[in-house]
Amino acid sequence: MGRFSAAAKHHQMIAEIYELQLFDLKNAVNHYEQATDYFKSEENNSSAEMCSMKVAHYAAIFEDYQRAIEIYQQTALTHVGGTLLKYNIQTFLFKAALCHICADILSGKHVIQKYVELFPMFEDSNECKFLFELVESIETDDLNGFVMAKFNFTSKFRCDELVKTLLMRIEKIISNGIDLR
């Protein structure tokens, strides 16, 4: 009868207030999750996806990488073979791969290959090419190579706050001198 949809919109509105006015991100995430569930129950997939992307974003910010990875992968999987722009799928896979690398810096090559098998068009994307450069510099413990690859990518392509944050975290892990070999 549309009541879940109304409740979902209210939770989304409350989440936005917590996020943008009160700067209480934990409560914002809780309300985005509730809105996602309610939108899904009403089969309003686009609104549910929008709210779940907020949850994934903040999960990655709060270093809950596994949760962010699950949301990004699930969203990408629902659109493979669908009508969503291929760019969005590539963006979801790119962010999931960055979260994987932050969680386990040595898992990069395996994860990227998995995403290429899942969505072959990803291999030709600029994001994937950058990820391979990034992984190569990690494997060779080449901080300068990483910094150059990051600079080249971020100067050519628009990166959102989350991507910049994840790249800074990866750079910090590499610069702390962790032996990656």
Automatic annotation (TrEMBL):
Does the keyword Protein transport feature in the UniProt annotation?
Answer: yes
> Which residues are listed as membrane-spanning?
none
Give the family from UniProt: Belongs to the SNAP family.
Q: Which GO terms describe its biological process?
A: protein transport
| Keyword Ligase attributed | no
Q: Which domain of life is it from?
A: Eukaryota
Write the record's keywords in alphabetical order, separated by commas: Protein transport, Transport
Provide the protein name: Alpha-SNAP
